[in-house]
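User: Show me a protein chain along with its predicted structure.
Assistant: Here is one chain, sequence first, then structure tokens.
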Amino acid sequence: MNLPSSHPLVDGRTKNSSLVRAYSGQVPSRRPVWFMRQAGRSLPEYRAARVGTAMLDACLDPALASEITLQPVRRHDVDAAIFFSDIVVPLKLAGVDVEITPGVGPVMGSAVRTADDVARLRDLGPLTPEALQPVSDGVALTVDALGETPLIGFAGAPFTLAAYLVEGGPSRDHLAARTLMHADPATWTALTQWAADVTGAFLRAQVLAGASATQLFDSWAGSLSLADYTAHVAPASARALSHVADLDVKKVHFGTGTSELLAAMRDVGADVVGVDYRLPLDEANRRLGGTTPLQGNIDPALLAAPWPVLEAHVRDVVARGSVAPGHVVNLGHGVPPETDPTVLTRVAQLVHEI
């Protein structure tokens, strides 16, 4: 297993949790539910905790990151916490000039578009355990407080990290990144391999500190064709997940707009596939051959709909997910910031009652 003896999967705290069992293809007595971007976003207690603290500073403050991670578990009675972080945190820890600009997102000091640019990244060296200590400390604090509730480790997939680096910030279509992968495949490969090792080290630190599962989040993979994903992205995602391959934790892979990529995303080394709101779960199960546990896929837009509409939708998601070997209820993307938190609590209660 290669996990520390104090790990909650080893000492038994989370081994039989509903989340871990569902991720393992079992049907627990209580159907597990958690919400992507549940840590923060819509919670007033999150906004109060964040006053005066920049996003990346909050992520790297172990006590604050732990408190924010725990808030939705206390409020919603969800079946898992997901560590409060951001996909660019490992870039920051590796020495990349990046900040998160409110209302914009991650912004790089300079774009990475040439072989020399990538060489300078690689000169920063590997992401060391010492650099990752704030993350490890935050995870350890959280796991101690969670008891039998599992913590999910979180990291961005190499394509999404590379897209931010090449574009220099957020982009609607990722044209510069998609151009680079074809115009200079050697540079693209070097960049995505570096990103894979940085984000893989970030994942590994969270697991060794006590995370009971991991999620690799590929925000922008939906901009790719299946052929481009398979040829130019899948090898790096497999490399990222290889950093935790020797650790006995379940690995979830999720992307938005990735209905045509589900099998390829699983085949990079994932145990569970997250499905966004665009594809019904029974169809996702069919495309995956009926052998892969699923996570998803309540439409976030319906969180603001009248309760009878949302309730019917949640019941439909649960029914369709029941055909898969295992199912963890989640959103088909993240919690919108304007969501009424009481609605999330009510959804969690409904899932547990069904």
